[in-house]
Sequence to fold (220 residues):
Amino acid sequence: MFAVDPADGKVRWQYERETPEGFTIHGSAAPRRHGEAVYAGFSDGYLAALRADSGELVWSRSLAAASDQFVDVDATPIIEGDRIFAASFSGGLFSLRLKDGEVLWRTLIDGTSAIALGAGNLYAASSRQGLAAVSRQGNILWRQGLPEAGDLTAPVEVGPYLIFSGSREGLFVVDRQTGKLLQVFDPARGMCAAPTVDKEGRALYVLANSGTLYALDLIW
Fold:
């Protein structure tokens, strides 16, 4: 991980972790800046908090389960108040204390690679278990299994719906209260790209794996 000065392009600092010897999952989490720290997940299963000005390690916490492979932290962490939500592929979804990384709760959702925070719930997207809605206390409220969907993007709340993409089966719309699958749009070859939603214009834009960009009307 690098911090680069935008004025001259020079590296301010860098932070490195060893790449695990076992298999890892394709993809990586984006770092999250909050206050004086940057929070980032790594392929060895660790979530780390670093000082934004120097790269000095503040704390690190393993989110990996008892496994030597597929332990990646590929979901970009989410910060709310004094907590940070994060996930690893093997360990599931976590809530941690922001200041020191202490684990407050863990919910095992195997294969989690993307998370989102909605108006009421957390959402965990898993290539193995589909989409799950989780309360802020870590309780699973519902699951929507999508065994053939492939890798899922983090869902977007749009009115009463959740909208997200699947790398093998296209665009999905589910009821955000119940998780019921309402609609699938797959022109061919799935969609790896997350949809972009224009809530004011009630439109949705998504790029299919075929290379075609689609604009869809949103009705609710």
